[in-house]
Fold these 4 entries.
Entry 1:
Amino acid sequence: MAFRTVAAAFVVTLAVAGCVTTGQGDGPKIVLKEASSRDRLLAETMGGMLLTPSQRKQLAKRMKQELPKQDLPSNFDTGAGFAGALALGFSPFSAQGVSTAGTISAGLAVVDALTATDRMNQVSAFYLPSQFEGNDIRTSSEATRIAQNMKRARVEAWAKSVGRSVSCVHSCDGPAPLYRITKDAAVKDRYFDPGLIYLTLAQRPMEQVQPTALESQLLGFAPAWKSSGPAGSPFCISMEEFAKDGKFPVSKDPQIGEYAANPCRSEHQNPLIRSLLRALTSDGYMFVGNMHAYSQFFALNGRILQLDRVADKFVTGEIAPETDAGALAPL
């Protein structure tokens, strides 16, 4: 099945035509453009736990009407099972999501997917193909280490590009490294110019997965490894010093273990953090979606989609790169 077959079925007409601008506090006006069908579909299905029950119901209804049935697995479900998979944090296009949807539809699992009220504030994932730099990825620990190294390299390259320095200050070889990012004197951000940023990029263990044809086409590669759980590759930032007497307070996670208790405030409401999100997701392996009251976005493939907390149209558009053009300027 060619991706264009699926994409053609999901061409969306947004409430805006072309590009529009919206106010955004002290930052530049947000320029929204129409999100691509592929990006919109990825955000809706990977971000299922960000959706309200009503949004899940509407998405399942639309999928049932619009998905090209001839291109789907025979056991693919677009009814309650589809919404149930979303509610449980599975992409309905993944092998596990297809299986979960079928189980729910068969009545073998009890999930009130359409009326459940639970939603997460953030979802995230990291995918890898079967090979990295020409070599097979053979174990979960190897895949997890590759994911962490890739994220660190992206952060270092991003910091250099925006006139900042980065150093790891806690759990540097562990699953939840804490990075300290400081500003160089030669560059100033016009809208948001913190002297200090703490960034936590945690990584839950990578699990081996079996790709489906539709999932592979949407991702652009056949996934062989995926971070575990609906928040498998968490992203959070803070702009305050939270070490006490030179030591960071710690918390514990069953999978991650001990990590620095960063008072996270994941956001996208300024050009600097949007540039970081674009850098982290630029090669299509990492995805992160946020549904806090102050920040609603889904970052993927080097782009950032604006989300709506309650509207049936979950994705309202892509924040156009020109929104942030010229935000960084020499002193």
Entry 2:
Amino acid sequence: MVLGPLFFVVTVGSLLVSPNLLFALGIGYSEAEGSQYLKIHPATYLVALLWLGCTFFRVKNRAQIISNRTLTIFIAGGFALVAYCVLMRFSVSIVVVSLLTPLLVLHVAQRLSDRSRWSIYWTLRLVILANSIVGIYEILIKDTVLPRVAAGVLIETEQRAIGLVGHALPSSMLAGLSILYLIHRVIYSPAKQASRIATIGEMVIHMAALVAFGGRLVIVATALLVVWIVLFGSQSYKVSRGVIVRRILLFLIFIGSAWFLASAEFAQSTIARFLGEQGAAASTESRLAPFLIVTTLDPSEWLWGINASRRIQLMELFDTNFGIEITWIAWVLSFGVIWAALATWTLAVLLFKILRRWPTPNKYLVALFLLGISGSQGLGGKTMLLSWFFLMLITYPTHTERLVTRRRYAEWS
């Protein structure tokens, strides 16, 4: 009975208790110095307790998307990677928050009741919508609600909005994922006309927020995937006249909204970044630096990874201050090619199992996510992004699910 409410706290806390908020509260979450216990996200501690409770009391796996045995093996591998990082004196908090926490989230989320899952779905939608609204507000007032920080240092040169989650790139990803999900739902899911209109309004808000957050790769990838969904859709659907009409209307709405947003004043900073201004050139160069960095590694560093001081030395050598934002290279640097390959394989297996259960519209969300972490917002740093993404895949109803509005939850399909 308490699993749902406690997991609700995990969901909201993971989104709203950002590194920026912790910095404002004087907690050294992102700083290099200080207690290691403070560098673990508060939501991680709570979801770990829920995982222990589910394991001890043998709470039933309701969803059965990923078997208990498979997920247990992956979680054990996550703890083994944590132990490896402790042994090698690498950063432990990055592994715990970015890689182990999503596995624990998946374990607990599969045990939620239908009613709790429905509540988490609406919670995610509302909090992400609030994040987008705050991002639009920030770009209009040319200031941020939370302090703009990176590695415990205030940043004053950045002009993009950061939203409630505290960073422009994860906020861009959340807005892009929401756009893809909502536009697919408007076209293919049965709903009343008023509900569709409200969903279109929500989608337009996320489009404006995506411009405000200014993640260039996510903007381009989202636009291309939206055009694909609207023009081609999925071959697995029976295309009725209503679907064709909604495709045409949404395409016109999308083009009109994009044109309006491109001409709006608050979009000028994002357009300037596309043109190579406002630090965009340095940001682009930071995407190329990781490929140069790995060429300097000796065989032992390829195999075992490098420590923080060596990483800083290499970043200074190639004059990049943005960190390593390409996930796959960041994993090699953080804990070696063997563990990086195992982490990549684990992610691939989990996504495959989810897509096999619910292929649409999740395949579009997965495409955007993989593009994003490969060149924009990586999982090599400390982030809750993968946990949020798994929650969206697990809890968001697909077009094949029957929404039982009278009982206020969605049935597992």
Entry 3:
Amino acid sequence: MKSLRNIEYVGWGFFAVMMALCAGPGIYAGLYFTYDIMPMAGRIVLGLVLASVVAAVVTFIVNEALHRRNLRKFEKKSKEEKKEKKRRKKKGK
């Protein structure tokens, strides 16, 4: 298993966990914010859609944060390699 410091992205597994966590509040919101004349199945499906949207947004935010963290590591490593290359070139003259 990868260390949490070395993880590059969160995938469908994280989305599924977030969906499961958001399903209860989403269904409650779907039941609370709709009229009683709407069929129960429709209200539950609306709640699950709300939960999936929230889970997708959270997953996107986490993926973006991980991407930016990895980009900073890559840029730092690239910058150090360029400095080292410059030092070796200067030393060789």
Entry 4:
Amino acid sequence: MKKVVIFDKASKWWHETPNVELLNKQITEIEKDGWRVISINSNTNLFGTITSFRVAAVIW
């Protein structure tokens, strides 16, 4: 089974950049549930600013 999560929680409401510390916590929680993260991709806007991350995981 495969799971894809879009992570776009920003650290500040006036700045689009996602909160990487919160992303790391969410990845740790996913791994504790028995999922294995296989890829993390960044999504950017037109100006090249990272706006979100896509996390793909499979269950072992």
